[in-house]
Design goal:
Length: about 950
């Protein structure tokens, strides 16, 4: 057996996963074992040549051998300088060989340590490699040797074929591209991804600096697009541009165009974004569309009409939220798309209209060679440049982004409306120009394939066929729900050194690779195109515009606008009547229900498309998860409340469906606990928020089943909550402290052990005494520690709990309180270091001190002091819960139970201004910024809806800020 379970190789899988998804590949992968044997090296005098990189001469020897094995000297007459052509081509082969063999060279040389001088050892080893004609090396590292030679020979044969095809079609090339027959080839650049046995798109350089693009695949996409825009240009004021094309069936040529990054025009980008949206395009990122003197021009159109990702399941909803985002304007690749990684502080925007500046850094590591010309050589991950990956908080940059967004929307809307008003004409044009077109199906992202190819060149899999096969089989992890024929084909192509390539036809469902059938699509590209065209409308236009806005504001910092509310702005005579509040509730209720979408599978609760956090490095358009902060859980809880208040049975039913499905999933255990826990257990970022919401919904509806299920699930994750964490336990959003507070609030008989409490007291002292950049706030600062222990102290009167609370109070007074007696966020002289917010400002501190007061630790005066501070500082004017006016209001309202007189004026002030129904509705209708586009609870529409529900009924205590139910 080739494949067997090994945790080091498959860390994401358990044994049952491996058996179900990877082991079925065993028999197929076992066949990918024959080493390449038809290649013989000859003697060479290259050994004395100067090396530009380690093992350059060794790789030159291999390159020379590949050249001799594949080159036809009859082709020399088509090149301007055969010697220079050979030199450039062999250097390319040499670099490919280097990329495959360097890690094995670096390992092998350490076995040949013959002297005390590492430089001498290098000379001895390289001379040995060449004189031995790699015979010993190729036997030891036979896996990578065979794979490397096969790829090189395939690439060399592809170059030969390129020249032959150019020669066969010189008359047509001259006619279309104005490259005279007499002009010879100078060089061929083929540095891109290879597909189908070493073929790749090539730039052919002729005399007089003329260039031509050769594409070793059908260019139906480019041809169809060229014909389509000819027909569309009669409808538009600003004409679309395209490449010149020569279609020769299984391959073709296109014109070479020069980039002009200075000619960026976001309105033009919006126009092409609309067209690509209608054509169900994918992969239109910055390397597949060029800014040119003639506007934006797509240079690679093989992924027009890209179909839905193949899943080997009939249970999947076809028109689900993931499919919607995939087929949205965001899915085209034209909008800003921020790629980032959880484990590192790097990101890059690969979208065509994205910003790539000094703060861009590829999230994909590359190798670096240290001491390369010695036996001490090390092949290490290149250290990435440290960049500032924080969200942009610059007024000028913000204006620039909003200007780009506005211009792109203008162009997008223009073309959308033209096609909407000429829908039948457009459909007929597309069906005519793309009839029988051959296109590409992309199953996995290219960088995923590149990771597999790279890991296969490590020294161990280079000589161990079983390990190489196991690493190759990891591609199956990306396709656990896909047809196994797809995975098998991926394995074959990767083993050949190619990026997997699948072909499809516009009006067919068959998926092929190298002209062999692989599997079926659920719907043909033509059928999916017709689904798209039947769904276009003004409503769809508005949805796409929302997604455009989300993509552009992804890297902008959260707006924190604080202003002094003037007495003149407060009209105490204004009475906010019940009907006004109900109308406002209806606005948000309808706004949310109109955008509800199916999840991928029917048994999963419904969801929304909205801003999704990228590990704290931005918010990109995506499908909302289950977190309480910005996910789908909060909206359904608010819809349950609002539906009951307005007696809207349809909305109540929608909310009931969500909580019933959540309950069923937990009861029937149709979940993978590992996957659930991967989302975290924090109050706002993981499972705990779902549990609290389910319990709260059960209390609202008197549904004991929901409540009991919630408490049982808390038992299920109790061990995980108490585990040692790499992160910050005392973080309200993602740490375990918030989850424990939730449980204390909803489960009367729950308490922590004294040993655990002692551990956390010790951890807390370590933080307050040693941590740099301490903040005073509730979400991420030391008042969270105080809040946590105050909740516990109410139930468990332990002296060391009281002591830590009192010590934190002293630190706040001595280190965070300024000369004006105002508590600051940080220990800093920054004048803007005071906030009214719940998450990091005085409102959160108020909640924390109030819990200390209720626990009998603080006096009334300590609470009143913070209320007075809030009275005199500027207040947030952004109506959201986390760091906005609604959070200030909710905190004050909670405290007003015991401080009614002291909070009355502030609450009235907010009710008449930034927390009034009219103000909130107007803010969200304005549509500027991420909050207005978010369905979420803490920074979106749901927070506003919950506030209005509580404004309508003062008896409602439900609050995610205090975890009241």
């Amino acid at each position: 057996m080739v494949l067997f379970y090994k945790k080091e190789v498959y860390p994401e899988l358990n044994k049952s996963d491996f058996k179900e998804h990877i082991l079925p590949l065993n028999d197929f992968i076992e066949e990918l074992s024959e080493p390449f044997s038809e290649f013989i090296l000859e003697d060479s005098d290259l050994i004395e040549k100067e090396e530009l990189y380690p093992y350059h001469n060794a790789c030159r020897i291999i390159a020379e051998g590949v050249w001799r094995h594949t080159w036809d000297t009859k082709l020399n007459k088509y090149t301007l300088n055969p010697s220079e052509f050979k030199k450039a081509t062999c250097e390319f082969y040499s670099q490919v060989a280097f990329s495959y063999l360097i890690r094995s060279f670096a390992k092998d040389i350490k076995l040949f340590k013959l002297s005390n001088d590492s430089n001498t050892d290098y000379d001895i080893y390289t001379k040995y490699l060449i004189e031995n004609k790699f015979q010993d090396f190729s036997q030891t590292y036979n896996v990578v040797w065979g794979r490397c030679l096969k790829l090189l020979i395939n690439r060399a044969k592809s170059i030969v074929k390129t020249i032959e095809l150019i020669n066969q079609n010189r008359n047509e090339i001259e006619r279309i591209f104005d490259i005279p027959n007499s002009h010879k080839i100078v060089s061929i650049n083929t540095s891109g991804d290879t597909h189908n046995n070493g073929s790749s798109v090539s730039v052919v350089n002729f005399e007089k600096e003329l260039k031509l693009i050769y594409k070793p695949r059908p260019i139906s996409g480019e041809v169809g697009y060229s014909k389509l825009i000819e027909k569309l240009n009669c409808l538009v004021s600003s004409k679309f541009s395209s490449l010149k094309v020569l279609d020769l069936g299984g391959f073709g040529f296109t014109s070479y165009i020069e980039k002009n990054e200075m000619n960026k025009n976001m309105k033009e980008a919006g126009r092409i974004a609309a067209l690509m949206y209608f054509l169900n395009s994918s992969d239109m990122h910055y390397s597949n569309i060029y800014w040119t003197n003639n506007g934006p021009i797509p240079i690679d159109l093989e992924t027009l009409f890209h179909p839905k990702r193949i899943a080997d399941s009939n249970l999947e909803n076809f028109n689900n939220a993931y499919y919607k985002i995939e087929k949205s304007v965001y899915g085209t690749g034209i909008l800003p798309i921020h790629l980032t990684k959880k484990s590192s502080d790097v990101s890059v925007d690969v979208g065509f209209t994205g910003v790539r500046d000094e703060n861009s850094n590829s999230p994909f590591k590359t190798f670096n060679i240290e001491d390369g010309f010695t036996s001490n050589i090390k092949v290490v991950w290149q250290k990435q440049i440290e960049i500032d990956n924080s969200l942009y908080n610059d007024e000028n940059y913000e204006k620039f982004i909003y200007s780009n967004c506005k211009d792109l929307i203008e162009g997008f809307t223009e073309i959308y409306m033209i096609i909407l008003n000429n829908k039948n004409y457009f459909i007929n044009c597309v069906l005519e120009t793309f009839d029988n077109s051959k296109l590409r199906y992309i199953h996995n992202m290219t960088y995923r394939y590149e990771q597999i190819l790279r890991i296969l060149t490590d020294s161990e899999p280079s000589k161990n066929i079983d390990l190489a096969h196991m690493l190759l089989s990891r591609i199956g992890i990306l396709s656990m729900t896909s047809n196994k024929n797809i995975v098998s084909s991926e394995c074959t192509q990767l083993w050949n050194g190619d990026i997997p390539y699948f072909s499809i036809s516009f009006d067919q469902k068959a998926v092929e690779s190298e002209n062999k059938f692989v599997t079926w699509l659920p719907k043909s590209p033509k059928e999916e195109f017709m689904i798209k065209m039947n769904s276009i409308s003004l409503e769809d236009l508005n949805r796409q515009i929302e997604i455009i806005k989300l993509a552009f504001v992804a890297k902008l910092a959260d707006p924190h606008r604080d202003e002094q509310i003037l007495e003149s702005e407060i009209n105490e005579d204004v009475y906010i009547d019940k009907k006004t509040i109900e109308h406002s509730i209806s606005y948000f209720m309808n706004s949310l229900t109109e955008r509800i979408m199916n999840d991928r599978y029917n048994h999963l609760p419904k969801t929304w498309i909205g801003p999704v956090s990228q590990y704290g490095k931005g918010w990109t358009p995506g499908v909302l998860g289950y977190d309480l902060y910005s996910g789908r859980t909060g909206p359904f809880l608010a819809l349950l409340l609002s539906g009951k208040q307005l007696k809207n049975q349809k909305v109540i039913d929608v909310a009931y469906e969500f909580f019933d499905k959540v309950t069923k999933i937990f009861e029937e255990k149709t979940y993978d606990l590992r996957n659930l826990l991967m989302s975290g257990i924090g109050a706002f970022s993981g499972m705990s928020g779902i549990i609290w919401s389910l319990y709260t919904a059960g209390k609202i509806t008197e549904n004991s089943k929901w409540k009991n299920t919630a408490l049982k699930v808390f038992d299920l994750i109790d061990e995980e909550i108490k585990k040692e964490e790499k992160g910050d336990f005392f973080d309200m959003i993602s740490g375990s402290s918030g989850a424990i507070i939730m449980r204390y609030k909803i489960q009367e008989d729950y308490s922590l052990s004294e040993n655990f409490i002692k551990e956390k007291v010790k951890e807390a002292y370590n933080i307050i005494n040693n941590k740099k950049n301490l903040s005073s706030g509730l979400a991420h600062g030391i008042s969270q520690i105080m809040y946590f222990f105050a909740i516990i102290y109410k139930k468990q009167k332990l002296v060391y709990i009281r002591r830590i609370i009192e010590d934190i109070h002293k630190i706040i007074k001595s280190n965070f309180t300024n000369v004006q007696n105002l508590i600051e966020i940080y220990r800093s002289e920054d004048k803007n270091n005071i906030s009214s917010s719940w998450c990091n400002g005085l409102s959160g501190l108020l909640v924390s001190y109030y819990e200390g007061y209720k626990a009998g630790i603080f006096s009334k005066d300590e609470v009143i002091d913070i209320i007075k501070q809030i009275e005199i500082i500027p207040l947030s004017v952004v109506p959201i819960l986390c760091h906005g006016s609604l959070g200030v209001y909710d905190s004050l309202k909670y405290v007003s139970k015991d401080f009614e007189k002291e909070t009355r004026y502030l609450l009235m002030k907010l009710e008449k201004t930034t927390c009034s129904p009219a103000y909130i509705v107007n803010y969200f209708k304005e549509g500027r910024g991420r909050y207005t586009l978010s369905p979420g609870l803490m920074t979106g529409k749901t927070g506003a809806l919950l506030h209005l529900c509580k404004l309508l009924d003062g008896e409602i205590d439900v609050s995610p800020l205090t975890f009241e139910v």
